C-alpha cells in the first residue's frame, strides 16, 4: 500500500486574495508544501512583502496585481502567470469580502459589491485558470467557500447567498471538467481567527456566541484551512471532485 502524497513540489499555484488574512497564510503554506506560487490581489505593496517572506523561507513566488471585479483583466493576468511560470497547476480561489448586513438594511450597492467579488469574480477566476488547466490536461481548483454556503447566519443574507453560489458552481465545474483532468472542490471554513476577524472574535460576548455553535470548542486557524487546501491540491486528494469540504468544527453537523 502506497502512502498518501501531500507534496506540491514542482507545481505552480495561484493564490488570489493573497495580500492579507487567510490568503496570506494560504500562500505561505502552499509554498512551504513545495509549490511555486503566484500571489494575486489588488494591493501590490502587500503582495511584494509576501513574496519577500516566501523567498526568505526558501520558496519561490511572484506578485501579480488583480482586481477580480474587473472581469476583463482576469484572463490577461492568468496569461501573464502562465508566461512567467510555464503552467498553472493549482488555483486557490480565495478573493472575497465579508460584511454584516441585517436583511432589511441591505442596499443594492451592498448586494452588487459582494456579488462582484465573492461570486462573479470567483467564477471568472476559476474559468480563466480552468481554461489553462484543460489545455494542459490536468489541474486542481480549490475554491474558498464558507459554512455560510450551507447554513444560514444572521445578518449575512448577501454573504450566505454568494457562498451558496460558490458551492454550486464548484459542483458544476467538477462535473464538466473532472473527466478532462481538472478537479474542482471547495473548502468551507467556520469562523477563522485572522487580523480581520480579531475585532469581533476578541469580544467575549461575540466569541461566546460563536463557540456555543462549535462542538470542537474553538474557532479555526489559518493552518486548519491550509491543511484542507493542501490535501485537495495534492496527489492525496486525487479522487476528490465536486466536494465541499467543511472545516467547521462541527457547526453544520447540528
Helices and strands in order:
Elements: E1 12-16, H1 21-32, E2 36-41, H2 44-56, E3 61-65, H3 71-85, E4 90-93, H4 108-136, E5 139-144, H5 157-177, E6 182-189, H6 198-201, H7 204-211, H8 222-233, E7 244-247
Parallel strand pairs: 1-2, 1-4, 2-3, 4-5, 5-6, 6-7
Helix pairs in contact: 1-8, 3-4, 4-5
The largest β sheet comes out as: 7 strands, parallel
Largest sheet strand order: 3-2-1-4-5-6-7
Counting DSSP E segments of at least 2 residues, the number of strands comes to 7
Using the 3D structure, state the CATH architecture: 3-Layer(aba) Sandwich
Q: Which percent bin holds the helix content?
A: 40-55%
Strand content: 5-15%
What name does CATH use for the topology?
A: Rossmann fold
End-to-end Cα distance, whole Å, is 36 Å
Average pLDDT, all residues = 96
CATH superfamily: NAD(P)-binding Rossmann-like Domain
Overall tally of structural domains: 1
The ordered string of helix (H) and strand (E) elements is: EHEHEHEHEHEHHHE
Number of helices: 8
Structural class: alpha/beta
Overall geometry:
globular
Radius of gyration (Å): 17 Å
Low-confidence stretches: none
Q: What would CATH call the class?
A: Alpha Beta
Amino acid at each position: 500500500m502506497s502512502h498518501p502524497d501531500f507534496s506540491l513540489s514542482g507545481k505552480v499555484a495561484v493564490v488570489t486574495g493573497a495580500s492579507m488574512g487567510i490568503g496570506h497564510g494560504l500562500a505561505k503554506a502552499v509554498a512551504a508544501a513545495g509549490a511555486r506560487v503566484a500571489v494575486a490581489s489588488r494591493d501590490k505593496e502587500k503582495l511584494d512583502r509576501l513574496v519577500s517572506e516566501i523567498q526568505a523561507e526558501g520558496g519561490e513566488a511572484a506578485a501579480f496585481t488583480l482586481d477580480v471585479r474587473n472581469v476583463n483583466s482576469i484572463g490577461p493576468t492568468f496569461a501573464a502567470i502562465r508566461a512567467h511560470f510555464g503552467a498553472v497547476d493549482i488555483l486557490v480561489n480565495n478573493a472575497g469580502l465579508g460584511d454584516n448586513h441585517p436583511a432589511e438594511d441591505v442596499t443594492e450597492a451592498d448586494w452588487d459589491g459582494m456579488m462582484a467579488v465573492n461570486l462573479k469574480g470567483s467564477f471568472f477566476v476559476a474559468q480563466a485558470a480552468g481554461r489553462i488547466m484543460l489545455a494542459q490536461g490536468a489541474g486542481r481548483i480549490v475554491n474558498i467557500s464558507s459554512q455560510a454556503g450551507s447554513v444560514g447566519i444572521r445578518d449575512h443574507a448577501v454573504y450566505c447567498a454568494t457562498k451558496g453560489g460558490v458551492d454550486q458552481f464548484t459542483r458544476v465545474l467538477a462535473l464538466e471538467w473532472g473527466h478532462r483532468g481538472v478537479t474542482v472542490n471547495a473548502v468551507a471554513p467556520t469562523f477563522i481567527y485572522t487580523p480581520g476577524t480579531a475585532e469581533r472574535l476578541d469580544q467575549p460576548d461575540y466569541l461566546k456566541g460563536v463557540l456555543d455553535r462549535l462542538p470542537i470548542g474553538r474557532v479555526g486557524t489559518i493552518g486548519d484551512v491550509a491543511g484542507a487546501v493542501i490535501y485537495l491540491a495534492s496527489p492525496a486528494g486525487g479522487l476528490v471532485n465536486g466536494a465541499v469540504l467543511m472545516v467547521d468544527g462541527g457547526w453544520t453537523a447540528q
